[in-house]
Amino acid sequence: MARVTYLESNTTRALGRVTGNLIQWSLNPYTGCAHRCTFCYVRGFERRAGRPSDERYGSNIRVKVNIVAQLRRELAGRACPQGVTIGTATDPYQPAEGRFRLTRGCIRALGAARVPTDIITRGPMIIRDLDVLTEAARCAPVRVNLSIPTVDDAVWRATEPGTAPPHQRFRAMRELTDAGIDTSIGLAPLLPGITDSMESVRRVLEQARANGACRAWVNTLNLRPGVYEHFMEALAQDFPDEVERYVAQYGERPYLPAAMDKEIKLAVSALKREVGIADRRANPIVPELQLSLL
């Protein structure tokens, strides 16, 4: 891994409004991600902002050092949002969190304000925050979404070079669910010809079920400009036999053809039911607000 430089700065806004999406409010304590996944869709946003989206992506992490204080001001100054998702643009439990602990502070602030919170991460470092997660979950729903698209070590090393191994993420899943935190798995993104076989998906879902995941969701690969260029370079190096397929499927569009995308998602839905993960629910901590109504 290349050396990472942390650039500390103040932010004037903690919460971001998201339109045209199931997510309404987002929160990202960091900009840039040291996980450097080859398929990361954020590379596209970095390119549009005039920042590196190639192999340099993730070498400079911008740290919003005042985000916890700013979040508290925003929560106090407006009607609290119905829900906030942490980690929509960069992983809140990338290595920077071990040093700055901004995600931890944000979870505590959202819990105190009784705001439902979703967290998306590939980082098993999240188990360091079991205390604040369970504290927040007593006040409002808290859901953790662990992204684990494959259990193939060779594919993981090639496509997610800065992340922890899948088995460590499953171990974190087990600890979260044992603590009563509602935890799901995200197979995102599935890579055509690499991780989208139902045999590969089954292996992931079975391990997720064994470690307590209460639901699973899936997305296919998005190769918008800025992502496409870097991903195709990595693909040529690590999976050269797949290059022709990706040029044909993504050369004129950032997404798979709609029929192909639908076919994959329907097959995964059927497999979820077969494995027994589709409608499972954890035993989440009952919020104090609900307890007062019993």
Topology:
Elements: E1 5-9, E2 15-17, E3 25-27, E4 30-31, H1 42-48, E5 60-64, H2 67-77, E6 84-86, H3 96-100, H4 102-112, E7 117-121, H5 130-137, E8 142-147, H6 153-159, H7 166-178, E9 182-190, H8 198-210, E10 216-220, H9 228-238, H10 243-250, H11 258-275, H12 288-291
How would you summarize this macromolecular structure in one to three sentences?
The protein has 294 residues and is an alpha/beta fold. It is 39% helix and 16% strand. The chain has a single domain, classed as Aldolase class I (TIM Barrel), CATH 3.20.20.70.
Written description of the protein model:
The chain is 39% helix and 16% strand. The chain has 294 residues and is α/β, with parallel strands linked by helices. It has a single domain, classed as TIM Barrel. The protein has a 7-stranded mixed beta sheet. Strands 1-5-4 form a 3-stranded mixed beta sheet, with no helix packed on it. Strand 2 and strand 3 form a beta hairpin. The protein starts with a strand and ends with a helix.
What proportion strand?
A: 15-25%
Kindly provide the name of the CATH class.
Alpha Beta
Work out the helix count.
12
Low-pLDDT stretches: 282-294
Shape: globular
Q: What distance lies between the first and last C-alpha atoms, to the nearest angstrom? A: 52 Å
